[in-house]
């Protein structure tokens, strides 16, 4: 196996309300082009998950998830405390691992001349076309999917790290295996990520 794609739960929260989005997003297509500090007014609306994401793709982790990650090897992870939600953190993944979905399964649309990227990247993210296993630990992809403000990288997990994560049964953590030769849309590892 090559590793896992980690999809986290939706926490129904907003990190970039319109008045804060200005410096963080492209004015033409709405993509995030810069990280901004945690919104001092941010409040986590759904607190029942160990890992979840805001509507802009900011990952939010619980204390338990942080404790697990603190002993992980080979990762470059950062946990920024949330001022209004003690025990929860903005989970930043700085290490990049190689992942490229098959060209025929992902559709790129709305090229933006301002930020030189596609405003919409949608389709099936299928585990094929890879040539080597992911490193252990937790990483993110250079590749980003989704539309505008919701465009975000994938979270990528090494094989053994994913098995450890599965054993902990964290709430809001969904793992889809990356393996060679899987047919699009078929089998337990098929992952449909609908960009919206
Ligand atoms: Zn743009």
Task: Describe what you observe in this structure.
By secondary structure, the chain is mainly beta. It has one domain (3-178). The chain has helices at residues 18-21, 63-70, 159-168; strands spanning 3-10, 51-53, 59-62, 77-81, 88-93, 96-97, 106-112, 117-123, 138-147, 152-157, 173-178. Strands 1, 2, 3, 4, 5, 6, 7, 8, 9, 10 and 11 form an 11-stranded mixed β-sheet that branches. The structure holds zinc ion (ZN). Zinc ion (ZN) binds at residues 26, 28-29, 31, 112, 114-115. Zinc ion binds at residues 26, 28-29, 31, 112, 114-115.
Shape field: globular
What is the terminal-to-terminal distance?
29 Å
Query: Helix fraction?
Result: 10-25%
Number of E-type strands: 11
Small-molecule binders here are: zinc ion
Order of helices and strands: EHEEHEEEEEEEHE
Radius of gyration: 16 Å
The overall number of domains is 1
Short account of what is shown:
The protein is mainly beta. It is built from 3 helices and 11 strands, in the order βαββαβββββββαβ.
Features:
single chain; 196 residues; mainly beta; eleven-stranded mixed β-sheet; 11 strands; 33% strand; globular; disordered C terminus; binds zinc ion
Could you give the topology of this structure?
Elements: E1 3-10, H1 18-21, E2 51-53, E3 59-62, H2 63-70, E4 77-81, E5 88-93, E6 96-97, E7 106-112, E8 117-123, E9 138-147, E10 152-157, H3 159-168, E11 173-178
Parallel strand pairs: 1-2, 6-9
Antiparallel strand pairs: 1-10, 1-11, 2-3, 3-5, 4-5, 7-8, 8-9, 9-10
The structure holds zinc ion.
Zinc ion (ZN) binds next to loops.
